[in-house]
Amino acid sequence: MTAASSPAAPVVVGAGPLTVEDVVAVARHDAPVVLDDGALAEVRRTREIIRGLADDPQPHYGVSTGFGALATRHIPVDLRHRLQRSLIRSHAAGSGPEVEREVVRALMLLRVATLATGRTGIREETLRTYAGMLDAGITPVVHEYGSLGCSGDLAPLSHCALALMGEGEVRDATGTRVPAADALAVAGLTPVELEEKEGLALVNGTDGMLGMLCLALHDLRELLVVADVSAAMSVEGLLGTDDVFAADLHALRPQPGQAVSAANIRKVMAHSPIRESHRTEECTRVQDAYSLRCAPQVAGGARDTVEHAARVAANELASAVDNPVVTPDGRVESNGNFHGAPVAYVLDFLAIVAADLASMSERRTDRFLDVSRSHGLPPFLADDPGVDSGHMIAQYTQAAIVSELKRQAAPASVDSIPSSAMQEDHVSMGWSGARKLRRSVDGLARVLAVEVLTAARGLQLRAPLEPAPATGAVVEALVAAGAGAPGPDRFLAPEIEVAHRLVTDGTVRRVVEEHTGPLA
């Protein structure tokens, strides 16, 4: 979620499948890209196969035919280089706001990885120049709209290929928007003159949606730990019980993520004087509300969904998505592997769990603010209720985000609008699913930040009772950063932003783990 403080180690492309961590390293932390020598040898070998088809009178899709519904047109030899240029220029048809730099870099890395498999027939010099753009920090301007998630993320990838040709616009390493030709010249890179099949090889993949999936997986794994921390803070601050998080109870329902979440909450609440204060016969509460008691079941289900999505991502990272492909035995075959359905489905699944995690978090926050349910805390955690409103509107902010997340949980992958004169009559909409998931992940982080901030104030208002060492460390980190201390009303938005920063930069997890050891 935040930039690395030291240079990232190089990522080797072509020696084996990339990982989610590799994608994050290049996309966010500008890790250099190294092309594997064995991969380059395979690229050279399969390029010769494509060259062998250049003068073949038999039609070969992407080499000597048009594209999509125009595939019935046989292209004469003297027009085949123009065919590839025209493909990129016409398909670079995106519209709307610029896509984030990290998304474009992830997309580019994943296209480089597919090109390095040798299954696309690309030339070595084209591959090296594409990787050189990444290392030079050249980021093509890619737009929000233009991909249907089928036949590849066509418009986004085409804008990148256009920059490779020295056309269109890019952001240079300083973030300045400049003509692509100028950026390539400064980096010492020569624009590529595309040859047979190369244009098609540059645009026919699920790289955009897969790149966004990888970034979301990384962020959600971190936020799931924060969700356990915030749940523990709320259970503790609302005088709930940790008995329901016992390992033997969760063993009765062997969902793996649930057990992990329950174990995290137990660790975070350990040695809490606040919890011990009501472990008496005088405490008449038999069961806590669902948002407290069932936190591991919901966060655990989210964990398991994330890991399912990670398996899909791993399979896709091991794929060579292009059409046609050069098979290991030298055949050039058409296929449908560019269809984004597998990735699109899990992108939608993750938007659902992000919305549900946020919904439960908001419900816990609301309990702190309602005097009839907060077990002795002042209304809205206000210093002087009536004069002060405390965290009343912080919960409104949460509610607004949660409502938005619920709308974003509506699946994109069930929609399909036919294109290319009905040749491409079913599409995945995976790019759209990925775009809304990015907003969902951001919203979840903000909702959890408000819960952490509110729970911290609730814990402080239990004084003179002390919170657990781990939850107390979160309170101390917030106060040290200028947020969370009780008192008369003050400008609350900056404190919410502080909490959000501590959630997303890893501070909340780090200070907790100093007391608990590693959380899963």
Q: How would you characterize the overall build of this protein?
A:
By secondary structure, the chain is mainly alpha-helical. It has two domains: 11-205, Fumarase/aspartase (N-terminal domain) (Fumarase C, Chain B, domain 1), CATH 1.10.275.10; 216-318 and 349-516, Fumarase/aspartase (Central domain) (Fumarase C, Chain A, domain 2). 54% of the residues lie in helices and 5% in strands. It has 20 helices and nine strands. It has helices at 20-29, 37-53, 80-91, 101-115, 124-135, 154-164, 180-186, 198-203, 207-237, 247-251, 256-269, 273-277, 290-293, 295-317, 341-369, 392-408, 430-460, 469-480, 493-504, 507-516, and strands spanning 11-13, 33-35, 95-98, 139-140, 143-145, 169-171, 177-179, 325-326, 332-333. The strands form four sheets. The chain has a three-stranded antiparallel β-sheet. α1 links the parallel β1 and β2. α9 (207-237) packs across α11 (256-269) and α14 (295-317) runs antiparallel to α15 (341-369). It is elongated and about 90 Å long. The mean pLDDT is 94.
